[in-house]
Write a structure and sequence with these properties.
245 residues, alpha/beta, 49% helix, 7 strands, Glycerol-3-phosphate (1)-acyltransferase, seven-stranded mixed sheet
């Protein structure tokens, strides 16, 4: 019965999610191309905000943020854990205005991809790693100059809760080249919005933001190693506290 109840709630969520995506994706194409960048970001972020709120209403998935006071009022590179779709929505709100590094195929998804285009993402071809690194470096520097922060998932793809992927140095390379700070972000969103599953589980997502890391005098490898150690330790701590509670 419990799984049936979760399924019913998840169906309600996906119905609303689909309608929101269709509305904002379509309307973004019709009106956002003629608007200034800041207004475009604010409009599409309304979509992000409603998706997060709708998930809470339908499925009981709440969240808390620890360390938001560390976020500086300047462009920076954000290196974050990637477990689900939830963080792709919420981190756009937490670090706005922001450009996200993502696989170019996502921009072709009807509705969803149309809205993403309005957020000035860095769309890469993951089948060509050398070209992807060049795109991250070239377009990332441009986004930072434009006043946007850049979100990087250094593992490259979503990992299941309790697992860790290989951390790539693309985000750290960008930060050192641009001489901008980085922050690390850990969370446990995958426990409530699994990457490969239909059901959504009630609970509280915890997001932890690190202190600002000055990149001056540090290599990209050092920053990447710092990110991996900090993020994985925090994720382990978050999940242990959640299960203990």
């Amino acid at each position: 019965m419990y799984k049936l109840w979760l399924a019913i709630r998840s169906i309600f969520f996906y119905t609303g999610y689909g309608l929101l995506t269709l509305w904002f994706g379509t309307s973004a194409i019709l009106i956002c191309w003629m608007l200034p960048r800041q207004i475009r970001h604010n409009y599409v972020n309304t979509w992000n905000r409603w998706v997060v709120a709708w998930l809470r209403i339908c499925c009981g998935v709440k969240y808390e943020v620890i360390g938001a006071e560390h976020i500086p009022h300047q462009p920076l590179v954000v290196l974050a854990k990637h477990q689900s779709q939830w963080e792709t929505f919420y981190l756009q709100l937490l670090f706005t205005p922001m450009s996200t590094i993502l696989k170019k195929e996502l921009l072709k998804v009807p509705g969803f991809g149309w809205g993403l285009r309005q957020l000035n993402p860095i769309a890469i071809d993951r089948s060509n790693p050398k070209e992807a690194l060049r795109q991250i470096q070239q377009q990332g520097l441009q986004r930072l100059k434009e006043g946007l922060s850049v979100l990087v998932f250094p593992e490259g793809t979503r990992t299941a809760p309790g697992q860790s992927g290989k951390y790539a140095r693309g985000g750290a390379n960008l930060a050192t080249s641009a001489n901008v700070p980085v922050v690390f972000v850990a969370h446990n969103a995958g426990d409530y919005w699994p990457a490969r599953g239909f059901l959504k589980f009630p609970g509280r997502i915890t997001v932890v933001v690190s202190d600002v890391i000055d990149t001056a005098g540090k290599t990209s490898r050092e920053i990447t190693d710092m990110a991996q150690q900090w993020i994985e330790e925090q994720v382990t701590r978050i999940r242990a506290n959640a299960f203990a509670g």
